[in-house]
Amino acid sequence: VLNITKFDRYSILEEFINNGSQNIFKCIQCGACASVCPVARSGYKFYCKNIIKKIQIGDIDEILEDISPWACIFCYRCNDICPKNVNPADVIFALRRIQANDLNIPTSSISGITDLYSKGHAIYSDKSQQIRTKCGLNPIPETAINDHEAQNEIQILLDESPIGESGFF
Amino acid sequence: MKKNVFFPGCNISFIVPEIEQSIRKTFELIKFDIYDLQGASCCPTWGTVPSFDKNTWLTISARNISIAEQMNSDIITGCNSCFSILNKTRNLLIDNKLLFKEINKRLNSINKQFIGTSEIFHITHILSNNILINSIKEKIVQNLNKVIIAVQPGCHLLWPANEIKIREKNSFFPDNLIQLCICLGANAPHYSKISSCCGAGALQNIDQEKSFIILKEKLLSMKHEINPHIIVTGCSSCYIQLQRSQAILRKQNHINFEIPVFYYTQLLCLCMGIKLVFLNEHQNKFVNNFFNI
């Protein structure tokens, strides 16, 4: 049984329409999006086309529990090629945010936002100082990693956001 | 006059700084001034904040853009993901007054403001400029006329096409990076999987085996159709994926070759006679075979 903390089924549909795509019910399953989708090509179970159909018929339990939506790289090929302006990438975004709200999130994304919170960068490596020095660069770049005020600003923005309320930090 | 700031992003700063080295040396050599974006954070990349909350994503991206705006600068990225995130943010905020107002309300709490004056470019957009191309051609000391290159433009420089200012005529038949390689004297033919994804990022993080399916397709398309000496990309994620995962595919006997991978400005520096200190074994082998310097 799904444990959807904040959304009931009706509000999930509303979320798909409001934060995903106004045109989700205009999809005619032509398959143009799937024909150019790297997620589909790689053999993931769910991708733009079949996710949209599942939402249209209200059969959403399986897609809410599946990890496939987190494989999307947001290349936006699907939005460009869709003849009905469904904007499939935005549907995937909405789906991910609903999953995130239910804490159905891959670990790489959790470490990404906790590192963003603590360092100002979602990706960081301890080895970087050594390589940067060899390349003749500042060992530490002049970005948020080296700027406490910048880190503090990022923390304020994240603390004040719905993500801050989820208890990740 | 508007200045230009360099937005290095996380991967270039911390995982593959050799790209930053070549970008800075390139700008130095062609006398193109770039400034640092002091206090810039992660863009933040697609799999992080944008996947959790739209307005928080837009606020953190807009904060990065607002620093450039305070410096009266456009932003130049070397990473396709950073380019796409910042460009998408700018377009969404300029097109939607309600969002513009809401994001500025949030930015106000850290005394920052998004106006919309800074444009977002990728380094290959900047180098494609006619004046710079001529300046590059003048400085080339090593012509690559015996070299065949497979170019890898990367997804986020191709789509969404109508949101990219310096765009391809046809994103499925990209030409910008080909032209940049041709100006070094090289031959950079089209191959059938030229616009396909390399499998990096989320695809790789969620299931490496699955991401290898499309990477292998791409590499075989290059090898069988044009048999290139090297792969050249303008995307730091593609650079990491094509280099590291190609080595894994070979080790696992999925392929029996390994094509050296260069970031475009690395190759450009070498052609302009600059010695780069941080080349790997495959890159060095190519340099020793084709360069007289």
Report a brief summary of the structure.
With 169 residues, chain A is mostly helical. Chain A has helices at residues 9-20, 32-36, 38-41, 48-57, 61-65, 77-81, 88-101, 107-119, 128-134, 148-159, 162-165.
Keywords:
heterodimer, A: 169 residues, mainly alpha, B: 293 residues, alpha/beta, four-stranded parallel sheet, 13 helices, 49% helix, 9% strand
Q: Uncertain regions of chain B: pLDDT < 50 for 5+ in a row?
A: none
Proportion of residues in β-strands of chain B: 5-15%
Q: Label the overall shape of chain B.
A: globular
Biggest sheet, spatial arrangement of strands of chain B: 2-1-3-4
The fraction of residues in strands of chain A falls at under 5%
Q: How confident is the prediction overall: mean pLDDT of chain A? A: 91
Helix and strand string of chain B, N-terminal first?
EHHEHEHHEHHEHHHEHEHH
Give the fraction of residues assigned to helices of chain A: 40-55%
**What oligomeric state do the depicted chains represent?**
heterodimer
> Helical region count of chain A?
11
Number of distinct helices of chain B: 13
Overview of this structure, please?
- The complex is a heterodimer of chains A (169) and B (293).
- By secondary structure, chain A is mostly helical.
- Chain A is built from eleven helices and no strands.
- In chain A, helix 1 (9-20) crosses helix 7 (88-101).
- The longest helix of chain A is centred in the middle third of the chain and has 14 residues, at 88-101.
- Chain A is globular, with a radius of gyration of 19 Å.
- Chain A starts with 8 loop residues before the first helix and ends with a helix.
- With 293 residues, chain B is of the alpha/beta class.
- Chain B has helices at residues 9-15, 17-29, 54-70, 80-95, 97-108, 123-127, 130-139, 176-182, 202-206, 208-226, 236-251, 264-271, 281-290; strands spanning 3-7, 35-36, 73-77, 120-122, 149-152, 230-233, 261-263.
- Chain B has a four-stranded parallel β-sheet with strand order 2-1-3-4. A three-stranded parallel β-sheet of chain B has the order 5-6-7, sandwiched between helices.
- In chain B, helix 11 (236-251) links the parallel strand 6 and strand 7 (261-263).
- In chain B, helix 3 crosses helix 4.
- The termini of chain B are far apart.
- The mean pLDDT of chain B is 96.
- Chains A and B meet through helix 3, helix 6, helix 7, helix 8 and helix 9 of A and helix 1, helix 2, helix 3, helix 9 and helix 10 of B.
